[in-house]
Write a structure and sequence with these properties.
The complex is a heterodimer. Chain A contains 20 helices and eleven strands. By secondary structure, chain A is α+β, with helices and mostly antiparallel strands. Chain B has two domains: about 60 residues, no CATH class; about 200 residues, Vaccinia Virus protein VP39 (Rossmann fold), CATH 3.40.50.150. The chains are: A alpha+beta, B alpha/beta.
């Protein structure tokens, strides 16, 4: 099972659980730490209390020493309240020491460095030494007990003996002794011991004793010896106890033991404190460290948990936001994570898919595609249901619209057709050829056919129909453009004057030449063109598609109009033919006129040009004539022309000169003979200077004879320019 | 209605200032006659004509077309064509390229005549023909190559004379069919020049008065027949100068039958038979 896909509530519970666990562990840890620390604290308290106990113990001992009077029951029972207290206390201290901690860990710590054992040993030692002291004290006894009593008894007996003996000196000594004894025993006059001994010795060695009753004296001796022994025993005990000097005495030892105990306690306490500090630090460190790690761990888990919710939640929010804004081009949300998110996202995806689907649906509706279908999301998909209703509505509206358009189309087809062809017929009412050509082309096109032909009768009685105009037409069968009435389908229609409509034709009936390939049109419509029952012609139209009844109806209507148009056109064309002819003739005439005029113009211009040239030349010639004497001869030498100046010089009239030769005019001596002229005629230019006689004067003339040539090089005339050599 | 000198001058002036056409050096008499005709045809007085000229460029163009005299024929003046065929063109037969300018080509019959002769001489391939006229309409007609049959029927005789016969040898006869160069359609009364001939020449509107050589080539042969008769002396000289400058050495200029070069340019050309050769 995928961890991620666990339900959120379970995750939440888990988180709570983890939290609880965390708290538990935390609490536990804290408690543990606390426990541990308080343990330490307790032990520390107990350790501190030990001091008190130890001091208390010692204080009990001291109290015992001070307060134990001679009549105390201690000397009898060897115990009194203090000793009992001491025993109790020492047991308690030891017990406390041992019972410092039940915790093995702490025990171990306490054990560490052996300081506890030392302390324990010290306390035990102290206790033991106290026992010794006690014993010694008890042994020694007090006024009415122990060795002291014994001594006193002995001393009393001795005293009695002495009394009995009635030795005054001894009795004095003994009274001294007794005094000293009392001082020694009860006043703390410990040096009296020696004195006592001394006295004893004195007594023992007193001469008076020798004279005394021997029995009594030996008794005394024995008593005094017993007394001495007892005294020595007491002294030994006293010394042992340390009444006088504490060195190496029980009292001293007790003090020492107490010091040791305190010292050991201190050492122990320090050691314990040290250990405890260490331990406490460790506990705190570990504890806090652990808490920290635990908390971090918990925070981390919380974070993971939080993130596991936050991220998919944000994603879902984002997605739903996009959806809310109407965005549809979105990738589906990935279905991962907690089951709730899977569920949520799955729903979002569904919403998205549903919206996309609906949009697609609406798009197809917009494109007028009404076959689109939509899946409803469920019974409650009111939106989907509304869309379906919309589709139906739109489809119905479209269907109605189509129907309406279709009706319109048909109506328009009819009306426009009629209008169009009326127009065609009206515009071409004067030219039958044009009318027929345009008509056939337009009717074929208007009916979506591919070819057609218009056959006409030249006259109403004719039996033969001629193909007047055709469109994309090449009838294989009928090479001639003539059909007899009754022949073939066209002829049949002409005969019967009824529309023929066929949808299946033999394959070779018509061959299309309009480049549509080899598919022959299967549908043929043949209409009679009639005016008031009189047949004018036949209209044949062929198509690849069948003709619907609207087209046939239109065709029939138009054919009727066509008939009258043809009649009109024929009439008109005759008139217009004549008109045209006359117009043509007029135009031709005008053109001819214009051309003639232009020819005239050219002629005139040429003439003027020639005239100009002539004028030009004339001017030149005149100028020459002014400067020179100019004679023109024909090729045989007879003079044709003479200029004025020469005539004046010759003093003759023109008719006197013309026709004569040069020699005849200018004298026989002239060298301008027929030979010269012949030469010049051949093309030479000859210059001669000669003297001639003119009016009785001898004049020297320079003659220049040159040929006047035609365009083609023949000499036409001869020119002589004469100049006087002055 | 006759046109006074003053009227005439006004007309010239109006044209010169309101349009690009300068008729001031045209032959007065001829131009006056044309003007009279235009006034009659358009049913206008001169004042109206002049004001129209000043305001309506299209009208000016129309007038120009009515002024020009466009008389022409196929193989007009056969003797000239004989000269071309047997004297003038043979001189050019060794050229790698022959440039011919028909200045004032009118409705193009002269150009087609030239092309037919060249073809019969085997020179058509290497010839470049240029045909110009002041009148755009006649140029369009020339390009169309369609002429009235009945009008031109006499000119088929000219064709025979030039193409089928040899004037220098009566026994020679080339049976060149008309269909080689044009189709005759009697019902529609048309002669239609064949496409090859129609497409060969370069046709361009050109004003000999104002423009120089806008064809940007030099010529071996220039034909300018019955054009200069409408020009005055000055203008004639200018035109001769234009031709002279744009002929190759020993190039030929062929004028109309009744035209000659007078004046200073007569020495610049040497007349041999029907042609003036640049010297």
């Amino acid at each position: 099972m995928n961890l991620k896909s666990i339900h959120i509530q379970y995750k939440f519970l888990l988180q709570v659980f983890i939290f609880v666990v965390y708290l538990g562990i935390l609490t536990g840890t804290i408690l543990l730490m606390n426990g541990q620390l308080s343990e330490f604290q307790q032990t520390t308290t107990k350790v501190i209390r030990l001091e008190r106990d130890i001091t208390g113990l010692h204080s009990t001992y001291l109290s015992f020493l001070q307060s134990t009077g001679p009549n105390d029951r201690f000397f009898i029972d060897a115990e009194n309240d203090f000793t009992l207290k001491f025993d109790y206390q020492s047991a308690a201290v030891l017990d406390s020491l041992n019972q410092l901690s039940e915790k093995p860990g702490i025990r171990k710590k306490l054990q560490k460095s052996g300081k506890k054992d030392s302390l324990q040993a010290a306390i035990e030692n102290y206790s033991i030494d106290f026992d010794q002291t006690r014993l010694a004290m008890q042994e020694r006894g007090a006024r009415n007990s122990g060795k002291i009593l014994a001594l006193r008894n002995i001393s009393t007996e001795a005293g009695n003996t002495i009394y009995t003996l009635n030795l005054p000196r001894v009795g004095e000594l003994f009274s001294q002794l007794k005094k000293l004894e009392s001082e020694y025993l009860f006043a703390g006059n410990y040096v009296a011991f020696n004195e006592i001994l001394g006295i004893l010795n004195d007594i023992l060695s007193h001469p008076s004793l020798y004279e005394a009753d021997p029995f009594l004296s030996s008794e005394l001796n024995a008593q005094l010896t017993e007394y001495k022994t007892a005294l020595e025993e007491i002294q030994a005990l006293s010394q042992r106890l340390g009444d006088e000097a504490v060195e190496e005495s029980l009292f001293g030892t007790m003090e020492q033991d107490y010091q040791k105990m305190m010292a050991d306690y201190l050492a122990f306490k320090n050691s314990w404190n040290h250990e405890m500090n260490k331990a406490r630090s460790a506990v705190l460190l570990i504890g806090l460290g652990f808490i920290l790690l635990l908390s971090l761990g918990f925070l981390f888990i919380s974070y993971l948990f939080f993130n596991q919710i936050r991220k998919p939640l944000l994603q879902s929010i984002q997605y739903s936001q996009n959806l809310a804004k109407g965005k549809l081009n979105l990738e589906p949300v990935t279905l991962e994570g907690a089951a709730e998110f899977v569920s949520l996202n799955s729903n979002l995806n569904t919403i998205h898919a549903s919206l996309t689907e609906k949009k697609r649906f609406v798009d197809s509706l917009l494109k007028q595609k009404f076959q689109a279908d939509i899946d409803l999301q469920g019974r409650n998909d009111t939106f989907g249901k509304t869309l379906i209703a919309l589709k139906e509505n739109m489809r119905k509206a479209r269907d109605e619209q189509l129907k309406y358009h279709e009706e319109n189309r048909i109506r328009r087809f009819q009306n426009e057709g009629i209008a169009k062809f009326s127009d065609i017929m009206r515009s071409n009412s004067d030219n039958l050829d044009k009318l027929a050509d345009i008509f056939i082309k337009e009717i074929v096109r208007y009916l979506n056919a591919i070819q057609g032909g218009l056959f006409l009768l030249n006259n109403e009685d004719d039996e033969i129909l001629h193909l007047k105009a055709a469109f994309a037409y090449n009838r294989k069968k009928y090479l001639s453009k003539e059909i007899r009435k009754g022949e073939s389908l066209v002829g049949t229609c002409a005969q019967e004057k009824k529309t023929i409509y066929l949808t299946k034709l033999p394959d070779d009936y018509i061959e299309i030449t309009s480049g549509l390939g080899d598919a022959p049109p299967n549908n043929l419509l043949i209409l009679p063109v009639m005016h008031e029952g009189v047949l004018i012609g036949v209209l044949e139209i062929a198509s690849l598609k069948p003709f619907d009844h609207n087209q046939i109806e239109l065709g029939e209507t138009i054919s009727e109009s066509l008939a009258s148009s043809i009649i009109n056109a024929r009439a008109n064309s005759r008139t217009s033919e004549l008109l045209e002819k006359s117009q043509q003739q007029a135009a031709e005439m005008a053109e001819q006129e214009e051309e003639m005029r232009q020819n005239m113009e050219e002629l005139k211009a040429t003439q003027e040009e020639s005239a100009r040239r002539e004028e030009d030349l004339e001017g030149i010639i005149s100028a020459i004539g002014q400067a020179f004497y100019v004679v023109e001869y024909d090729i045989d030498g007879s003079i044709i022309k003479v200029n004025e100046r020469l005539l004046y010089l010759l003093n003759q009239h023109a008719d006197q000169v013309i026709g004569k030769t040069h020699i005849q005019v200018f004298g026989k001596k002239s060298r301008a003979d027929s030979l010269l002229f012949a030469n010049v005629a051949e093309g030479k230019t000859i210059e001669i200077t000669e003297t001639v006689q003119i009016n009785k004067k001898q004049l020297e003339m320079k003659n220049t004879f040159s040929p006047i040539k035609s365009r083609d090089g023949h000499t036409m005339r001869i020119l002589n320019i004469m100049n006087l050599n002055k | 209605m006759t046109v006074t000198d003053q009227d005439f001058q006004l007309f010239i002036y109006a044209l010169k200032t309101s349009s690009k056409y300068d008729f001031s050096e045209y032959s007065e008499k001829s131009l006056k006659r044309r003007l009279t005709k235009i006034l009659a045809d358009n049913k206008m007085t001169l004042n109206i004509l002049i004001s129209k000229i000043k305001n309506d460029q299209e009208f000016v163009e129309k007038i120009i077309k009515e002024i020009t005299v466009n008389t022409t024929e196929l193989f007009r003046d056969p003797q000239v064509w004989h000269a071309l065929r047997y004297a003038i063109l043979p001189k050019l037969k060794n050229n790698s390229v022959i440039n011919i300018w028909h200045a004032g080509c009118s409705t193009g019959q002269e150009v087609y005549s030239m092309m037919i002769v060249l073809n019969e001489m085997g020179l058509l391939e290497k010839t470049k023909l240029y045909a110009t006229d002041l009148n755009e309409d006649v140029i369009a007609q020339a390009q169309k190559g369609e002429y009235k049959y009945r009008f031109n029927i006499g000119y088929l005789d000219n064709f025979d004379k030039v193409i089928k016969e040899n004037p220098y040898n009566y026994e020679e006869y080339y049976d060149v069919p008309y269909e080689k160069y044009f189709t005759i359609d009697k019902p529609s009364d048309t002669i239609q020049m064949c496409n090859m001939l129609r497409e060969k020449p370069i046709y361009k509107k050109h004003d000999l008065v104002k423009e120089g050589n806008t064809l940007y080539v030099k010529f071996d042969l220039i034909l300018c027949r019955n054009v200069i008769i409408y020009f005055n002396y000055n203008l004639q000289s200018k035109v001769f100068d234009l031709f002279h400058r744009n002929l190759y050495d020993n190039g030929a200029l062929v004028l109309g039958m009744h035209e000659t070069i007078l004046g200073s340019y007569s020495v610049k050309f040497q007349k041999k038979g029907h042609a003036y050769y640049k010297s």
